[in-house]
What we know:
This protein is of the alpha/beta class. Helix content is 33%, strand content 23%. The chain has seven helices and seven strands, in the order H-E-H-E-E-E-H-E-H-H-E-H-H-E. The chain has helices spanning 2-11, 28-35, 91-100, 120-132, 147-154, 175-181, 183-197; strands spanning 18-22, 39-43, 58-61, 74-80, 102-113, 159-166, 206-213. The chain has a seven-stranded mixed sheet with strand order 3-2-1-4-5-7-6, sandwiched between helices. Strand 1, helix 2 (28-35) and strand 2 (39-43) form a beta-alpha-beta unit. Helix 6 (175-181) packs across helix 7 (183-197). It starts with a helix and ends with a strand.
Amino acid sequence: xxxxxxxxxxxxxxxxxxxxxxxxxxxxxxxxxxxxxxxxxxxxxxxxxxxxxxxxxxxxxxxxxxxxxxxxxxxxxxxxxxxxxxxxxxxxxxxxxxxxxxxxxxxxxxxxxxxxxxxxxxxxxxxxxxxxxxxxxxxxxxxxxxxxxxxxxxxxxxxxxxxxxxxxxxxxxxxxxxxxxxxxxxxxxxxxxxxxxxxxxxxxxxxxxxxxxx
Length: 214
């Protein structure tokens, strides 16, 4: 899905001079954008310098984005499987900071879980029962965000949704799983998943979105 987004940007002659990757992990996607010639700032509060992918165009920052001082504007900002980990009371601030960190016409690429999906709804029910019984104080954040919430978040006077995709009933593959399976096997599974997603509208486990600021 990220490669599809890159093709879209390239086909529309979108200039990517710099990029911000929030929750970068090992820097897998940071390196991809670094290969495109972008100068990338990769931010993660749990960053491990011994595990990151070294790239001349990528600068790593061990920091919480909400507390990190952003001193520049970016053409592209990435945050994959990050939003659900932001405390609910800080999510509005998180999104506002992202918007303020983008150049006019800048692009947001993000993915997030869908709590009403075939996959996550099972987790919701599993957490709901002990919540009702008072054994846990809250249901996990993963199970509180339905897919249509993301649409409301970005379809407004400030931004527009360019592309909206789901990976079907399975999860977005992590970097480790992609490395284990190999590129060809991963791609075949993704292709199959996309076929399934056409039959499960609104029930995909995760949604990937391209958003452009107006």
